[in-house]
Here is the input.
Amino acid sequence: MKSWLPRLDWALLLIMLCLAGIGLVTLYAAVHQGGIGLWQRQVVYWLVGLGMFFIVCLIPVRVLALMTWPAYLTALITLMLVPVLGDVQMGARRWLDLGVVYFQPSELMKWALMLLMAHWFAARHAASLKDMLLAMVFAVVPAGLIIIQPDLGTSLLLLLSAVVMVFAAGLPWRWATYGVVAGLVSLPVLWQTMHAYQKQRVLSFLHPEADPLGAGYHVIQSSIAIGSGGLFGKGYLQGTQARLHFLPEQHTDFIFAVLAEEGGLIASSLLLFLYALLISRIVTIASRAATRFGAMLCIGIAAIFALYVLINIGMVSGVMPVVGVPLPFVSYGGSALITMLAALGMVMRVHIESREKLPWQRPGSPFA
Amino acid sequence: MTASSLELRSRFERRIFFLQLVAALLLLLLFVRVADLQWLQHEGFLLQAERNRVNVVPILPTRGEITDRNGVGLALNLVSYNLTLIPERVEDMDAALIRIKALMHWSDERMKNLRKRIKRSRDDRPVLLADKLDWEAVSQIAARLHHLPGIDVQAGTHRHYPYGADTSHVVGYVSLARGDDVKAGVLSSEKVGRRGVEHAFEKRLHGELGSQYEEVDAHGRRISAFKRTPSTMGERLQLSLDIRLQQAASKALGKRTGAVVVLDVQSGEILTLLSKPGFEPNRFITGLETEQWQEWINDPQHPLINRTIQAAYPPASTFKLLVGLAALQEGAPLAHKSTQCRGFVELSDRKYRCWKRKGHDKVDMHKAVVESCDVYFYRLGDQLGMPAISNVAQQWGLGQKSGIDIGPEAVGTVPMMGSQQGTRRWYRGDTLITAIGQGSITATPMQMARAVAAIANGGKLLRPLLLAGQAAEIERQIDVKPEQLQTIRSAMRDVVASVHGTAHRAMGRLAWTAAGKTGTAQVVAEAQDDEAQATEKPQKRKHKDHAWFVGYTPYEHPRFAIAVFVEHGGHGSTGAAPVAAAVVRAMAEAAEADGAKSDAMHADTSAGDEMPLGVDEGD
Here is the structure.
């Protein structure tokens, strides 16, 4: 323990604790009217999550590498079982049962896929185009399973994080360009396969004022909340949009609007800045990683965090269609928070191992 | 470490750098967007947020009342106490519902419905948990209100039907808005008319929502109210119904299943539209609609069917009136001659019996109607042929909707030669059976009442009207000569007046002269040959014949047409005619009461030779 503690990355820990603070303070504002129990539960989730963080810190990176295939396959199989189990467990308690079965596989898959891709590319230093295509197959299959659940947000996140990984692994620029073009061309196809309510969301994103009380309501109300906050905000617990329940889902997906309304541009840019720091810190750790697996792992985790933040705040501020993605460390929700903290534990582990002076890191080594 | 791996590593770092750049750029764009909202567009959004402090609270309209032709209330609004819940103000929904359940002793089923309704409704709108709370319940709840945030007892109104089951089919009932009503723009706490007048005239009865703007503080509590637009009360509807006749008919039918229709022969106004058994509309309790519904649906007596317009039965001997008219209209030779009834006719080895086994001896049309001779009409029908019979039946309104405002309506069946249901071909004997109103021909009591009204008023087929004060709507003038009508009318008169008439015993000594025709519809086909025998021994209810009476009154100056149908009521003369007699007696009494009233009011004006039945009639 003695040799372990000083090797922690204190910058990462500090960013984490700042996010914990701002997250809990904001959540309190969102739920203090009648939902204080949710806030107390979130405090417990933080404690559990921090415990997870330190436990994961103790797991050597090479052990993580061993867990990649089992984790991915478990996630894939449970994902495939969802429709089957879902049918069997009809009835009054369905949502409870599904709460366990439905949510977990896609949540697990996000991280398992990232681990697998890190492992895949770590073993293939000079990955061929075939390797990369295979890696994309690993992502497309679960993304397809998730999109029929239907959960557009998570499958989008899965695909985009896989793209980032493939790109980091050295996808030739030419192919990257082709990929972007192919993606744009396939948009109409995607549109055809979308559910009516998903189309509705996209349409209402393009023209929120067309139906102010219907599908556009969420975005209009959250824009009002953010905009009316101004530079300095309306004051803690003074946001009228949140108080008067004009904000939808104000303790989960739309919690950013509560922060922006009560804390103003100061608070919202502070949070954005914290996210930027977190991501850049993780990338820094990636660039110093002792192994290629560790580096790819950190890139994947940074990509997931970045995508979470971009999709969520983009949606709440009206520049993205409404897809259900939580704001990391701020939105209410136990399993998302705990898995995120576990992921940060992996990052920390990568950092710890990079400071163990491995042969090529000693003075005189080309990487030193 | 080789040179190539070194090169790989630096390429990896270039990629990482690029990705970081993209991430930073995107985060910067987000920042720009947020700054745009919070800095540049701040003023506009602040204004919108201020406006959001104002809630618009709907004010429910009062539903229009429904009365009979004399202003007697049939559907009223009574002040009562409602229990409401505003979901967003309830801290712990499960706990709150458990408390309410214990307090009100509600069933699990009811709680399940309640949860469904709470889920469906908007968070900031009150959900109606229960209406018509009694005082005990109000005091129980009121004492515990401070433990139950978001739950409130409010004064409101509920619909009350003073005549209950007697007017259930014609007036209908109201219940809470369902999913499809809400989609159509009705608030989930509003009530919507179901069935009868409540349903048919929903738009007029409903009234317009009002609204109240309320300023709320940061906690959603009301600070002040302004800009109140009051709700508009729904229209008060006066029906043409006379509740006294409706009640008299109900009393006369008693516990029997059946239907009574009374029409004004000149205007087509409906004075009685009774179907028994009815259902008790006041037993509807918010949250229990489905259970009540199930109970009625499973009732073997089918109380939800409005037998006046939704059920068609063989018209039996009452149909002979139309066959007789057909013969007169079409000029069938037998119509002006007489024939010999020996109790049966024989046709291709089969005997078609008259109800009177020993026969009616010599019969002409008059006697055949008065004594309801089957043999005469077998022969008449045979002479006429099926096309003429169905043609005339349709002329007089059978096989088509009467056009009454409430529904849905059954059309009944008028068989056509060659197009009857099933694959069986039409035999000559089928025409004989149809000529006495048996077999596949069916009619609703409303259709029969309409046909009789047309006989009484000179051949005008009218649309039955439910609202008072409407102008008569003549659907068509039937091509029939006055002397042809008179032949049938005088025969109908003697059905009641002559000692041989089938309705004489029941209706011969009424204050108002009546004319009519009885009918006995066979339920079991085999009874055809042994009817006389069969009626002597007690039958099981479901095998007992249906009883009909159709007629009009007074004979000299016809005013009202009556159709009485009693399911498994036995003979028309004993099962249905007494009911018609009771209705005619009630008419006379009502006219006398109204006359006395108008005498008292205008002591100097003498009552005319025809006493007004309704106060607003003739004005």
DSSP finds 21 helices and 21 strands in chain B. Confidence is low (pLDDT under 50) at residues 526-538, 604-619 of chain B. Residues 377 and 435 of chain B are 6 Å apart (CA to CA).
